[in-house]
Amino acid sequence: MRPADYHDRTKHHVNRLARSSGYLDWASQPAPFRAYTGAPVTSLVPRAPVHSPPYFAYGQLFDPPDGGGPGTAAAIGNSLRYALGLSAWKSFRGSRWALRVNPSSGNLHPTEAYVVTGPLIGVAATAGVYHYAPDRHELELRVAFDADAWRAAAGGAAWLVALTSIHWREAWKYGERAFRYCQHDLGHAVAALAMAARLEDLDARMLPGWSRAAIGALVGADRDSDFGDAEREEPACVLAVGRGDGFGGLWSPAPRFLDAIARGSWTGHATRLSGERLDWPAIDEVAEATADPGRGGVEGYLAGRTPRAPRERADATSDGPDPDARTVLLQRRSAVAFDGTTSLAGARFVAMLARTLPGPGAPWSALWWTPRLHLALFVHRVDGIEPGLYLLPRDRDAVPRLREAFGNDFLWEVADDSLPLVRLARGDGRRISQHVSCDQAIAADGCFSVAMIADFARSLDEYGPSFYRHLFWEAGVIGQVLYLEAEAAGARGTGIGCFFDDLVHDRLGITDHRFQSLYHFAVGRPVDDARLTTEPGYPWEPLAP
Ligand SMILES: Cc1cc2nc3c(=O)[nH]c(=O)nc-3n(C[C@H](O)[C@H](O)[C@H](O)COP(=O)(O)O)c2cc1C
To answer: Is 497 in the pocket of ligand 1 (CB under 6 A)?
Structure first.
């Protein structure tokens, strides 16, 4: 199935949603946490009681690292904790569920993470591939392999993180459209990992030369005997974490490295997540069609190419010191409702948008392609910015093509002197914004909402069908930045995966596949649900504010 065909068949229409079972079968709800039974376990729980870690300015998360810290077990533990760990436990009327640092469509968390390291003091004398268990904050050993093979391959990498998706976790609720949500979630996880690596003064970069088959061999997703009737995992991407300038040797997997892993000593059997499962052949087909062949000769990491827009104006107007990065990471939540009245300071809005533009630091340094997504913004309540429809092109080279593809008669007026922000139309966009986002009130009651518009057909022509996934990953990275920016501004964000695709296109005058909307987002002042009880993510940590 061509990605464009999957994309079209999984569009939501007002009178016809994408195919799903249409009801929630609670008996088959997938378990949110996977374990590998029989695998030796390494706890990442800090040995000493956790007091307050040292202050780390939130803004520094976006800066390039200075030097590069070591790949100790503690560094791995901290960076996983602040990327993919638990942020809170919530309970209501006898139900209890975990929230994580990274968000997920429906809180279903299809993404699994694996860490690859050399020998670790206090953990193992040899190299290993480990599954991360966020519920216990533990590593489960999948394979112990020859430490020399790691040393020969690692270069400047302190460790690798490989990500996979369990499609069934999302398909259980969302049916055919779930493949999209798995990709969004991966993008959020990539950004979360890149930003948490900054806390350890490390860079994280996606390695473009790793094919689906190589990633599968790395994490053992291809090992039938370890899965039995457990849900399989779809390999997605590998990130190297360390000194970014020393990753050259890892760009593609060295045959000797993969050989050492294949010959290593494997442990653990994947747990089954649901008793019953429904098949969604369209997801299997699009996964096959978008399998990554691995690629060399790409143009270079985003970071080196496009400078971030100046932030001076926003920094000058910020009300007090930068908040603590870890606090912001742990308090990130999705708003379930906005108050419909609060407005956002104009300079804050500009600062948030500036952070969605690629720059030399995290999370953009993690991505190897130039920006493919542009933001169409419905501005509702931002001081000094007239309500209306705006466009933030994230790559100036795309502007002529955006103008050509947006068939409607728009203003194309410069709307800001420090950002490439363009006013397309004036007026109250709350009703249309809510309507296109599956009639969800969050899209109207916040300060602004966003539709992320992908340079679709051209990007797929350039990099092939597997790049369909990368487009969603970029959307997820933008979403993660907006979540954190909202939180740092004292507001809150919500990712919006449910939208009527072609209604958004109609509003912009898009009539073909040159550009397609991939993800929506809303930011505003949240109205909290006071009925929920909140406990800390881990018992050894105090509750985040
Ligand atoms: C890709 C994606 C799509 C989402 N779509 C919606 C949506 O359409 N409506 C909504 O209210 N929340 C949506 N959410 C928010 C999730 O429900 C939320 O992330 C999840 O419940 C976990 O809660 P947390 O973000 O507070 O950790 C989405 C989140 C993601 C990552």
So the answer is: yes
